[in-house]
Amino acid sequence: MKEVPASGAFRQLEPGPIVLVTTSHQGKPNIMTMGFHMMIQHEPPLIGCVIGPWDHSYSALRSTGECVIAIPTIDLTRTVVDIGNCSGDTVDKFERFGLTLQPARSVAAPLIGECLANIECRVVDTVDAYNLFILEAERLWVDTDRKERRTLHHRGDGVFAADGDVLDFSERMEKWRHLPR
């Protein structure tokens, strides 16, 4: 083993796929790219995410208390990176990147038609010291016909990994069979 700076811990514990977060504030939809998120619990489904005041979406999320977490696949990698490199205060990201707004059912923030899945969420708590939002997932939409299903994972400094092989050990999960799939 070789010791490396602890600041690189996130590269080893990467929380899951890169996601796109949509908000709608005063009738204006926006998208941001986000990598710092985690599942907190199954029921009710709670998701923790870090969105700081330096992000244009922060004020929209604080004001409205709702968003959509959209899960892109690797065919959208360039778009995902480019969304993260511009600000919604000066750019209509849906227009610039040719993404399809689809209406959500429970929140004003739009779904993204090109994504594999979209999760409608409401803020149920915040931890201001860490810019941490606790979101409750209210509705989940999945494009079951989508051919590309591999998600994108950020490894730091613009390096990404794609999902690889799927290993199905569900038959061994005796203790957890009661959880939704």
Automatic annotation (TrEMBL):
<feature type="domain" description="Flavin reductase like">
    <location>
        <begin position="13"/>
        <end position="161"/>
    </location>
</feature>
<dbReference type="GO" id="GO:0010181">
    <property type="term" value="F:FMN binding"/>
</dbReference>
<dbReference type="InterPro" id="IPR012349">
    <property type="entry name" value="Split_barrel_FMN-bd"/>
</dbReference>
<comment type="similarity">
    <text>Belongs to the flavoredoxin family.</text>
</comment>
<protein>
    <submittedName>
        <fullName>NADH-FMN oxidoreductase RutF, flavin reductase (DIM6/NTAB) family</fullName>
    </submittedName>
</protein>
<dbReference type="InterPro" id="IPR052174">
    <property type="entry name" value="Flavoredoxin"/>
</dbReference>
<dbReference type="InterPro" id="IPR002563">
    <property type="entry name" value="Flavin_Rdtase-like_dom"/>
</dbReference>
<dbReference type="GO" id="GO:0016646">
    <property type="term" value="F:oxidoreductase activity, acting on the CH-NH group of donors, NAD or NADP as acceptor"/>
</dbReference>
<keyword id="KW-0285">Flavoprotein</keyword>
<dbReference type="Pfam" id="PF01613">
    <property type="entry name" value="Flavin_Reduct"/>
</dbReference>
